[in-house]
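To: structure subgroup
Subject: Chain for Friday's discussion

All,

I'm putting the inputs and outputs inline so they're searchable in the archive.
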Amino acid sequence: GGDDQDGAGIVNAMLDRGALAVAAEACGAMQAVNAITRDYLKQRKQFGQPLASFQVLQHRLVDMNVAFEEARAVVHAALSAVDAGAPGAGRLVASAKIQAARSARFVGAQGVQLHGGMGMTDELSVGHYYKRLMMCESLFGDADWWLARAAA
């Protein structure tokens, strides 16, 4: 803008869009972690059975998928609100960033843990996804920053 214009609105709009882009990236990474982990549990055998046959691990996979779907739903709602110029778009962006960060931490950690000690090695992509999810969590403000912004 010119010298007589306040650029805060433009900066905030770009911050919102950047945060949504990172939250959407995190959703894609979470979806990949879920798929990789599901496939690993189907292939890896313990006590003569695939790990995926154990009910407690099935529940953990479901929890991972629910966390991903929660984040994806809020991110889609925020994207629609921003594109439409809805009055409450800012709060939805904050909600999307907060939920994506919380879900990313949970899904990434569960994926690594369900892969055992190999989860953080360079040979498995789940460790790379986890590291990227932790980066997405902090880019354009972490969950605490967005929570404080929404409360203000």
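Points worth raising on Friday:
The longest strand covers residues 45-46.
The mean pLDDT is 88.

D.
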